[in-house]
What does this fold into?
Amino acid sequence: MDSTPSPSPSSSSAFELVSRALGRYFPQGGASAADAPSEHATRERVPDDPANGQQEQILGAVNLDRDLIITRCNLDAPVFAGLEVWAGKPFVDLLPPGDVPTVTRRLRQVVESGEAHVARIQRLRRGDGSELVVSMSILPAASPEEGLTVSVIAMARRLHLYAAETAIGTSLDIGETAQSLAESLLAWGDVAAVDLDFAVWTGEGVTGKAQGRIHLRRAALVPDRVWPEGYLTPGDDLPGDASRLLAQAVLRDDAPQTIVIPDRQAVERVFGNPRVVRALVPGGRSAGVACIPLVLDGVPPVVLGVAEVWRRADCPFRDSELFDLQELVARTAHHVDLARQHQREHTQVLALQRRLLPRAGGDTIDIASIYQPATPDSAGVGGDWVNSFPLPDGRTALVVGDVVGHGLGAAATMGQLSMEARALLSAGLAPDQVLEHLDETVTLLDDAESGLAAGYSALGSTCCIALYDPVGHHVTLSSAGHLPPILVSPDGHAGALSIRPHPGLGAEFALREPFDVYTIGVPPGSVLALYTDGLVEDPALSIDEGIDRLADIVSRVHPWDSLQQTARDVVSTLAPAPQRDDVTLLLARMIGYRKGDTATWRLPARSDAPARAREQVAALLEQWGATDETRDKAMLLVSELVTNAVRFATGPITVRLIRAGHGLLCEVGDTGNGRPRLRRGDLLDNGGRGLGIVHRLTTRWGVRWTDTGKVVWAEIAR
It folds into this structure.
């Protein structure tokens, strides 16, 4: 290989920077296109000899143009002997044929994007057909016209084991962990596969399981190429007899061991089933395989799966290679188990999250929600939650929250707060009153015994509660440190609601302030968007700009667009997967009741109020075409409720009837603050019989509190 002059100190190409940085490891110079030899020279392979003192020279660099043609190279270290490298040759000619598509794609991505691709474990072909395993990094040039530089590090045994373990331990995703292991195993063969027990793949427990019942699923396969029909690829289940044979072979007498099947004939004898052979043997050539168990230490040991390395039968595995394979798999088996445990926790938390998602809307409101969890390889599923549910009095509650932290601790707190909010809202409490209770709950959860001692704190969690009144066409909401909802009016104008910032739940006593309550008009056709920060956070934008982007996208919602599809489109636009934080979005389109389906009267708190109420109700129900039975029940119900209001409260009395679906909702409001209670009375006791009558006439009834008093509501079938 001819040499070129040493690069000048002022040069800044990636090739020359790498050569200068690593110059002490290999001779100066390299071949250029202008100095290409007249005949293609092939290096003779020099056997590795640790005693010759040259094994430390394991670094090299190759410069490519934009067409991936070699322009210069610096691979003079003895470890690279046998590689056919010269200027003017396509770089892909150094690759095994099956690796050409993947590596070519990586090279072109670096050329087009200018972003480096670092430390890919790769095989290079020598002239004699053998292969050299290297760690390959692809570095872009300062100018796109200059192409790129490929730096290679010949993977000595210990260096390869270290690099492989480091690469495998960087992910908590089952698939990525298995893929990293398979890529590392490829250094010892032509094809590598990782088959995991189905329980590992799904995150289930594996200890105490009968090994004879192992069910293997292919988790990873390298290299990436077109495989023959019937061959197992990632996601496929191994045939049952293959799973049993592999499990029994690698775990004999409760002692895990590596087994080697030297050639195809032996493979066919072992498995004895043509379908199994087609599923496991990569290609029609004669090939041998080494099967290495992925084992958790214990009594007895637990097999997580099997790693398989296939290579040509004329290149049998040496004992030293088998020791290396066993050492690598043993070092990395615990990474697979960590990924399994993370998958199990992720699955559990995700199930809880989805359990809390809203199911559907109703006649007065259309609801759509999206929950997109963080990627499994992130810190874990977070504490984002969203819920919507109809309240017994005809209103609809919309709740969104974000609990601090990730994992099971955040999920447990999230579930507790969500259920507590639902119970309190169903009991008739106003949004600010519910937040006061949630604030106290977070404080109690964070005491020394149950909170900080468990290594988790929920202080600073946020929540926003909105109650939609379909009769008055307004929303009452209150927020504890949460991002402001976005309201889209029927004419398409959208913007975040002006809400005064408030500390999150569990704030210090000195910072606690009463929760503000806001009442906003929402005409039919309005859309309200509640969300968590994962949807609007972007490192390149401020949080206000992210909220503005969301408002702009939501403003394009057409009145007859599918709300669920709109929610999907919004999330895919603002937070395409994968993402490092949970994304939650709730869209609610307000429909409300028609004007003719409701009626309201205000009566003075006098003795004639029940009679006047009965007259008004009778006339209205006749107009609505109600049956005699419904009319009689409604008149008696309203009479009893108004009588109680006159007897125990002061001020004007409000009576409201709502025709809702298959029911009739009756409401009587007064200025009293006492809670009506249903109680048992003696036969001669004349008090307390009114609520007994209400209880028997209705399908359900209850109380909600207002700023001026209370409202007793009751529903009867019609």
DSSP finds 16 helices and 28 strands in the chain. The CA atoms of residues 64 and 647 lie 94 Å apart.
